[in-house]
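Work through this protein:
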Amino acid sequence: MQVEQNPLRYALKACRRHFWAVGLFSGLINLLYLAPSIFMLQVYDRVVPTRGVPTLLVLSLILAVSLIVFALLDTVRIRLLMRASLRLEKIAASNILHRIIGTGGASPAQRAQAMRDFDTLRGTLTGPAIIALFDAPWAPIYIIISWLLHPMIGMLALVSSLLLIALAVASDWSVKKSVAEVSQRTSQAYRSQDYSIQASEVARALGMREAVVRRHLSERADLAKRQSDIAGNSGGFLAATKFLRLFLQSMALALGAYLAINQEISAGAIFAASLILGRALQPVEQILNAMKNVMAAQNAYKGLDHFCRLPDVTATRTTLPTPRGRIEVDDVTVRVPGSDRVLLNKLSFTIEPGTIVALVGPSGAGKSTLLRTLSGGVVPDEGEVRIDGARLSDWNPDELGRHVGYMPQTPTLFPASVHANISRFRALTEGGGEALDKEVLAAAMLAGAHEVILRFEHGYDTRLAVREGGGLSSGQRQLVALARALFGSPAIFYLDEPNAHLDINGETRLIATLQELKARGATVIVSTHRTGLLQAVDKVLLLRDGVIQVYDDRAKVLRSAPPPEEAREPGQLDQRGHAGEQPRAQGGQS
């Protein structure tokens, strides 16, 4: 479904019909709320003085029918709000999830919070807070009816409503800032705990468990104190509201009695005035009771609305031809988010189709950042990346992704079967079958992962666990990730240290894979710290401190290498990208 740029506002507009219907039913419900007051008024004014039992029976029947209709209308109103919540989910959830997964312009914290905000907002549509908000506009009707009973009763109802509204505004003003801050700190605390769970193995191995636990307990204690302060502040206002409502409702009874003594109203109007005043004040008290939910929904809407203003990754783009693999980087600069520190500084270079480029340099030079930028995972602060002359933003991300093989430095596998991971979950969008199985096997064989996968407990159907690595060793994880990158015979490859966890046989197989890709005419950029892969590349691009130091043919770069007596680790590249002595093969993990 094509939606406008802000999916949240579009979805809320689509739910307007439900909200109008809820408003209509709320009006009818509030009118029926008068039934008990009218019943009491008639009993005291007509039935008791005349001792009219038939009249009492008729009034009782009318009251029963009115309350049955009231209950049915209230049920329909709740169902309408539930349907609005479901419609909001149906229209907006997909687009928001696409933005969370596919938007590089938002921080991980913003993306993690977006769906929580959406669920908070959607949950509020079915809670008591939204009912109170729809009932609140009808409070003036009860004040007018009170005025019809007697102007003094109407004046008391008006003053009472203004007092409670003032309390509600004061309560909102006193805790608004604190609630927003606690919400932000709570999200940070949960993210910190999630990260500690992922890193629990490291914490245990390094004897950090007690320190990590104390850190989280300190965060929780601070949150508990802040939440307690907010609850105490809100509780005070809520207690004052309950006191005022009960007191003023009793005063309405006293005022009615006084007016009845002076024969200005009937005896039945005494009790009717008290009930009507209580009903006029009830929505304000309900809003105060649900103030925490109302403010959470308000903050969620603001945060989600800001997130939904990011570029829409689901927007329809013109389908471009299958890329040949020409990559142009023009004056690309990438900074650390929220900082002026530069990771990549004005990089410009061109890679022709069918070229294999080795991306080398010391740790922290910006190699992984460059590969993430080329793949679209990082949006450059300045400059642009073009594929076959088209900017990355001009390509449909999914269509371009089919022609790209990306393997990050830390291979990320999803909690699903090995087959589903390699096939990029293609069965969910196109269905499975023999053709898909053949593509998966071809990719695994080209990566040298087929024999390794067959040794898994259930082969290609082995399900990976929901934890780092998915239950595989680093080398196995890297082979599966490489097979996934090779799936579908892409035209462009971004491989970030694909040999980091491979033994000498695995690296030999990887060199053969690169040669096969070259024969196919694929464009490959491979990051490496080891010199073994250099024999399979055409060019070498040396990065240092985010700046290109060397970009030339492999032969020229190697001819300019310094004498071997220069101090550097065997098998590594020095800071200029020059190769040291290749270590002898010993087998095992590198």
DSSP finds 21 helices and ten strands in the chain. The first helix runs from residue 7 to 14. The longest strand covers residues 342-351.
